[in-house]
Amino acid sequence: MDERVHPEVRRIADEIDTMEIRGAATIADAVARALRTQAQESDATDPEAFRGELRAAARTLYETRPTAVSLPNALRYVLRGMSSTTVEGLRQNVVESADEFCARLDRAQADLGHVGANRLRDGDVIMTHCHSTDALACVEAAVEQGKHIEAIVKETRPRNQGHITARELHEMGVPVTLIVDSAARRYLNDVDHVLVGADAVAADGSVINKIGTSGLAVNARDRGTPIMVAAQTLKLHPGTMTGHTVDIEMRDTDEVIDDETLTELGNPTVKNPAFDVTPPRYVDAIVTERGQFPPESIVILMRELFGEGTTEPWVEP
């Protein structure tokens, strides 16, 4: 571990790695605040040393979640503002960029929620997968508009993030039915919308999200149930415009099975992919704070926001 990295940054990195901090927007907010702490507490005496500290802190955060696109997008936003030629000026650059990013993040989710709520009608039943604050923002806005919404919530193994979704929907006053993941197809005929979030959205409109999303989308399309993806623009993956692919994170096997049971079963190989890729043909709309888009046109928004490519400011020059 780089000794230049502030303990608070290391703590945030550990909590992202262990999923104590989860959800793309929550991760992005935590990352921006961690860089702000690094800047505020830095005792660097010259500008290059300060920049080196911030790059080291950013790398520590970046390496925790290779597929959480919101994380590097947050790093880019905060670091790209370092334009001053003095330590104090650079410190102010980072603090102001981090504060601006967090403020925009707060507004973005509310704006996205209102866009998504317009697709939900009074009396609609939704089906969710995993836990997405963006998806829940759509439901919350619809409820605030006076619409009655009900939810069928997939438990989402192996970490049961659907339990978090169920609890938060209950707190909104939304009636919830919790189902095992394998029962999703059985209940799709009772559903008006499948509503999911995204960890990343590629330039071709493919959606990278919690494992099981792709299978749910295929079943929903077969049943004629529309699929809405709620994703802030910080989830857009600018690297995919220049040919980069998205790595699928493999999680620890102990999330699936304990060592004793594994031994009893004869030590089979255990695979625990965190995400899968849903092709754009299975998605009806991607809802962002900038409006809703058919998946095939999301690249237009991506170019508007990021240009034709992107940089990695945490890499040593």
Automatic annotation (TrEMBL):
Pfam family, one: IF-2B
Residue ranges that the Swiss-Prot or TrEMBL entry lists as coiled coil: none
Binding site for substrate: 22-25, 65, 209-210, 235
EC number assigned by the record: 5.3.1.29
InterPro entries, A to Z: IF-2B-related, IF_2B-like_C, Initiation_fac_2B_a/b/d, M1Pi_N, NagB/RpiA_transferase-like, R15Pi
The protein's role, per its UniProt record: Catalyzes the isomerization of ribose 1,5-bisphosphate (R15P) to ribulose 1,5-bisphosphate (RuBP).
Note: Reaction proceeds via a cis-phosphoenolate intermediate.
Family to which the UniProt record says this protein belongs: Belongs to the eIF-2B alpha/beta/delta subunits family. R15P isomerase subfamily.
Name of the protein this chain belongs to: Ribose 1,5-bisphosphate isomerase
